[in-house]
Amino acid sequence: xxxxxxxxxxxxxxxxxxxxxxxxxxxxxxxxxxxxxxxxxxxxxxxxxxxxxxxxxxxxxxxxxxxxxxxxxxxxxxxxxxxxxxxxxxxxxxxxxxxxxxxxxxxxxxxxxxxxxxxxxxxxxxxxxxxxxxxxxxxxxxxxxxxxxxxxxxxxxxxxxxxxxxxxxxxxxxxxxxxxxxxxxxxxxxxxxxxxxxxxxxxxxxxxxxxxxxxxxxxxxxxxxx
Length: 226
Description:
By secondary structure, the chain is of the alpha/beta class.
């Protein structure tokens, strides 16, 4: 409940850069983010995992947004999963026109509240950073790690969504290098064959299951947290 109230209070600050159609979209994204934030999955006593991500984590386009890929972490790992997602966001500070919704900005809000006690932070995205500069992505990447503190981190890179496939390799390579430089685990998903919705950008429910299972397998292979 506390995390939802934080999101509602903070939503009034989201739309500094948005106007017209952007504003309406940002309002929808904020509502979807708040709803997904409230839909924690998995046993209360399970390993606490916080997911910070984009529209894939929120389940944009699904009839059942709560079936987005993080739900597979609860199903496959028995984890207690908390999703702090926002459609259109990324590592870069200006990947979204909806204000301060970058991964780093939301990590600062999600982790001290509902994420307290989290053992693992999964950061998923990159498709919205295809137009961002390397320096902006790197700055946002470091901000996420600062907020994560001593928690274990898994960075999950962008899949080759048909609508942006040509631009994905550069972002994937940069995130892989940043992860190696900072000593955090990285999962490249560019080789996954996933079913997409008609927009060529968002996953079907079957795609979410396959993507989530790949992330769950990567988590299972992580070394035990110290």
